[in-house]
Amino acid sequence: FGVVLIEIITAFKALGFSRPHNEVTLASLAVDRIKKNCLDEIIDPSLEPNKDAWTISSTHKVAELAFKCLDFHSEMRPMTEVAAELEQIKNSGEEITTLSLDGSNYSSLSIVHEKEMIKEVKNNESDKTALFDSMNSTNDKNNLLNHAEDQ
Length: 151
What we know:
Elements: H1 2-10, H2 26-35, H3 53-69, H4 79-92, E1 97-99, E2 105-107, H5 108-150
Antiparallel strand pairs: 1-2
Helix pairs in contact: 1-3, 3-4
């Protein structure tokens, strides 16, 4: 399980024969970098690890969990703890606070909700405009018909 977690955060394959002899296995490479506190050397750049505090923190937490899972002694690998911690990391990302330009805090979920509401209002306004135009067109036609009948 630890190797899978490391594969996720590094995008490396479990076996890399192009890597130095002592780093052929991803487990060896990861344990080495974690022990040396050089995890950032192997994190997949497409994760944008320095994007924000949550990304940095969660990536490092996943690496710590992987390190525990890679323990040489299988009885020392805390699988239930790992599952619980992964769930906690996932849940912590569900409501990320972002800073708006004016300095006030908004949750990203609130921003998404606000965007959806704005889109809905615009759609409703568009529908009302179309209905109004249709009514005006119908009224114009009726007025023309009434005017023609009067003539």
